[in-house]
Amino acid sequence: MEQTTIEMLKSKKDFYIGKTVQVSGWVKNFRESKTTSFLELNDGSTFKPLQIVIQKEGNTKINEATLNGVMHLGIAVTVSGVVVSAYHNADDAEINAEKISIIGNCATDYPIQKKKTSLEFLRTIPHLRVRTNTFMALFRVRNALSMAIHNFFQSRGYFYIHTPLITGGDAEGAGESFQVIAPDFQGDFFGAPASLTVSGQLEAEEAAMSLGRVYTFGPTFRAENSNTTRHAAEFWMIEAEAAFTDIDGIIDVARDMIKSIIREVLVKCPDEMAFFDNFYEKGLVEKLRNVADNAFARVDYTEAIEILKQSGKKFNYPVEWGIDLQTEHERYLTDEYFKKPVFVVNYPRDVKAFYMKQNSDGKTVAATDLLVPGVGEIIGCSEREADYDKLITVMKARKMNLDNYRNYLDLRRYGSVTHSGFGLGLERMLMYLTGISNIRDTQLHPRAVGELR
Ligand code: 4AD
After folding, report:
1. How far apart are CA 362 and CA 346, in angstroms?
2. Could you tell me the CATH superfamily of domain 6-110?
């Protein structure tokens, strides 16, 4: 008999009612009464499981063993039976089982059990935690989020490009990259030091000077010694770059993207988002709807510093014009003051990267971070310095090795135009979308300081 997925059964319920089908999946729950057993089955095609009803009496085809305590969580089974409307929800389907076979046994020390297990414990078993409701929901949302990002950029005429993962430079200039070595070549495979990319931006800028609008979507590596709940050593970043676009133009794109992906995820993953709303952040769906439908806040860095100073709060890092905003400052601005996403614009030049457009005040750059409640920074964004002389002056002042940036400088010599871009951290966006508070719980196998399972 042809296999039917649970998704097919649920989405085309009316077609399947009364028909005999065969489905396979893993047992997510099993309960027995004297006359009836209930088995919840999931094959991954839907978030919610399918209920299998097993009438014990007079059902000679059911293998007796399945009803004698053999059945437990994690076992893989194939079930055939007749599709009926679910007893408790006429919109849903269930199966009256006629035959059940165990196709994959599951050892009794299976660590995923019905009772709620802590996320900390689940981090010790990344190969199995994906089977829990939390991670089934998470990876389904991660999938929808990824597609929503592509859909947004494709609909706006951006080209998806792939920038190198092995690079010769350090785009952010912060020296926080992992080195790449090939032992058989005495560490000199490329004839020059190589590292894993910390950002595809510099290469994306090259492409934008021909294709106009581009975006990357790929793995990014940072050897920051930041053992926090929002820093990963390997994460996925989306970087957009647009020619003929200034800081205000790119802020509009970033805002539209966030709204568009929130809307799409809410439509594509209603069950998963209801789950996160229920178990991780009460009011989550309502919050996201509000974000999608309302204006974001925008505040000048200088004004943000005033707001922080007047907050009456005692911060661990003293607030002074010129500081880079710390998590505690970002959280005050988003969680307590604005209570919604906020673009902080025009940061002091000295706390930001060398490539950002210098403002005419001589002190600040046309850069913005998008901060969101609960998470903090999810987007880093700027207009790029398009003027050759200005760029080189800053690079010299920072004692950068200009030879490493010849390609980048060439872009300012050959048809340089105003251009801007931003980077969105996929996992940070996922934290915001789900209410999951540790970035380690947004990846299949988290990579962070001291974390390599
Ligand atoms: O602010 P960042 O460092 O900006 C850049 O890399 C620019 N080149 C982007 C651009 O303009 N094209 O990083 C961008 C975003 C952050 O806002 C954050 O969401 C995420 O990347 N991010 C991290 N996510 C997880 N773990 C880390 N260690 C991260 N570092 C940055």
Report:
1. 11
2. Nucleic acid-binding proteins (2.40.50.140)
Residue type at position 275 = F
In the reported structure, the alpha carbon of residue 223 is separated from the centroid of ligand 1 by a whole-number distance in angstroms of: 13
Which atom from ligand 1 is nearest to the alpha carbon of 421? 11
User: CB within 6 Å of ligand 1 — which residues?
Assistant: 171-172, 199, 201, 222, 224, 231-232, 235, 237, 239, 377-382, 421-425, 427-428, 439
Closest approach atom of ligand 1 to CA 237 = 21
Residues 225-237: tens digit of each pLDDT = 888 999 999 999 9
Domain coordinates in residue numbering, the chain: 6-110, 129-442
Tokens 């649970």 sit on residue: 6
- Give the sheet arrangement for strand 297-300, strand by strand: 159-160, 213-221, 234-243, 419-425, 376-383, 364-372, 342-348, 297-300
Q: How far, in Å, is the centroid of ligand 1 from the Cα of 26? A: 38
> Which pair of tokens denotes residue 412?
């300012």
Contact predicate 246/423, CB 8 Å: no
Q: Which of 238, 239, 221, 216 is nearest to 174 (CA)?
A: 221
State pLDDT tens for residues 365-417: 999 999 999 999 999 999 999 999 999 999 999 999 999 899 999 999 999 99
